Amino acid sequence: MGHVKLHIPGPVEVSEKTFRAFCSPMIGHRGQGFKDLLAKIQPQLQALLSTKQLVYLSTSSAWGVMEGAIRNLVSRKVLNCMCGAFSDKWFDVSKRCGKAAEALQVPWGSPVRAEQVDARLAAGQFDALTLIHNETSTGVMSPLAEIAALKRKYADVMFIVDAVSSLSAAKIEFDTLGIDVLLAGTQKALALPPGMALFTCSPAALGKAATMKDRGYYFDFVEFQKNAEQNMTPSTPSIGHVYALASKLEEIFSEGLETRYARHAKLAQRTRDWAARHGFTLFPEKGFESVTLTCVNNGAKPDGRVIDVAKFQKMVKDEGFLIDGGYGKIKGGTFRISNMGDETEATMSQLYVALDAAMKQL
Ligand SMILES: *Cc1c(COP(=O)(O)O)cnc(C)c1O
Q1: Can you tell me which atom of ligand 1 is nearest the CA of 133?
Q2: What ligand 1 atom has the least distance to the C-alpha of 63?
Q3: Ligand 1, atom 7: nearest CA belongs to which residue?
Q4: What distance in angstroms lies between residue 31's CA and the mean position of ligand 1's atoms?
Q5: What CATH architecture is 16-254?
Q6: Are 274 and 317 in contact (CB under 8 A)?
Q7: N or C: which end of the chain has fewer CB within 10 A?
Q8: How far apart are CA 260 and CA 216, in angstroms?
């Protein structure tokens, strides 16, 4: 059987063009060629994150930087906003790092609300806050701008934001929003192969990190800053990823950021429309649906349609597309369809044809 096209919410399909860039011949990572490559993409990365700060490249998946942020920035206590599998896990990771952590848990399917964050931060004692902008397990986007606006009252609280499945698909203005750490992996919204993460830090975050003991080496944010100033990375990076990222950034800026955001919003709406046409409801609370993936309810509501998700998934796979059968405790009770990366009206239409065909056979 040939390649099954990925419409799972990560890793997502990687284009031929990106693969070709990924497979460029190796160069030395301390040589001028590599420095020139980083120097070339740095302004584009800064534009993508809307920041004047340097953007760092970490050869790790997103979790490396997510854990690193805890180690670099939490000295008193962290408040972990939890609304799904990834954000719930961040609380666990904080504790595994030996940090004092508290959970702000909302039911899966709900977003984290600004007022909830405000109320908890007001109770005091926190010096860090983690938030996942787009919770990939539930397809919910939390209102980042509203949370950022209220978070401004708490200048000492480091605001750590995961945009793994939203960076480049929705606008996130790092400097304006007053975020302290913003991070993303490469295999989701950016549609690169897995294995690299990018992130940036506010001056306050760098200042705080410098005071932290036992922050290690591989994820030492101060090391990332020092090296980025020289257009380098602390250790040998995945150079193939840097080539692929350079190629992707060219595509992103020739499409235009606003056009890219609009494309994702439109494609996600088309998937929601597909679900509605087949009698499905959506898992996320209304108004908080992700623009990069759709998490469809499999009959959890009285009016919802119920199907055998595993069988549906298999039939769709036979048509040449891989969709996701639900994550963790909502496996089978939901299924997820990604429109991240390079998808267009035309490519999504091919997927809907395959989904329709599978639905007919159920
Ligand atoms: C996938 C994902 C992660 C974890 O990424 P890894 O590449 O497995 O480290 C973290 N946060 C979100 C929102 C994700 O979607």
Answers
A1: 13
A2: 9
A3: 61
A4: 31
A5: 3-Layer(aba) Sandwich (3.40)
A6: no
A7: N
A8: 37
